[in-house]
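Treating backbone geometry as a discrete language has practical consequences that deserve illustration. Part of our work consisted of pairing the sequence of a single chain with a tokenised description of its backbone. What the numbers capture is local backbone geometry rather than side-chain detail. For completeness, the protein is quoted in full, as a sequence line and a line of structure tokens:
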Amino acid sequence: MIKRIRASWWVVVAAVLLCSPLAFSQTVDLYLNDGGNNTMDGVYVGPYDATQSNSNNQNPQGVQIICDDFSHDVVPGESWQATVASVSSLNTGNLSGLMWGNGTLLSGGTGAANVLQGYFAMAYLASQMLPLSGNPANNQTVGYMAYAIWAIFQGAQVEAWLGGPTSQAWLTVQKMALNALGMTFSAGQFAGWELLTPIAGSQNPFSQGTPQEYFEFVPEGGTALMYLLLAGFACFGTMYFKSRRRASEIV
């Protein structure tokens, strides 16, 4: 009996490890609830409130997401699909599918190494921004951090929006963004942070155009792990019942 129980648990573990990546497929559904309650210069700076579910629109979870995209717009009530990438797994060879995979940094850098540094800099700013949000006393700092994230790859647009190269708001944001770009990062320091890159054409209403890309923090045992485990156990269940049916047929 003990041996049979151990064998069953090994089958479960194997099912989770082998089947989950395919079943999960790294795609989620997002629904934008609202833009939060913090605005700066006429823009909601976030974090935004959204509902995230797996690709079959099951197991909805409320999440906070941080936008890294100043060029596209979303509206409350809009939904779309997004691919999920762990920030800690990013490297110079897997950036092409991201929103700014071929982007140019505020500092002028291009190419994969610079793009990777840009994403790490945005993740760093997001990680500093999230704990401050929710306290009205931090609204201005959170707003500057949001604009700094946008400025990493969209400096010209952010500079123009904030009033030009000599405006105090832009100078503050520019300094914050350049400081982040000048830091040394390791992928491991962003454990739990994920990127949600929109799938063009999946948005509803379609007329809104391509949605934005977002950062999301998933605590250990959070949404992504839940999906992974559910997918693994679903795969195991399929294997188990299929095995029972075959055994019955053989008998």
About this structure: Residues 1-25, 222-251 have pLDDT under 50 and may be disordered. The chain has one domain: 25-223. Residues 25-223 form one domain. The helical segments are 2-24, 112-129, 139-161, 168-181, 223-250.
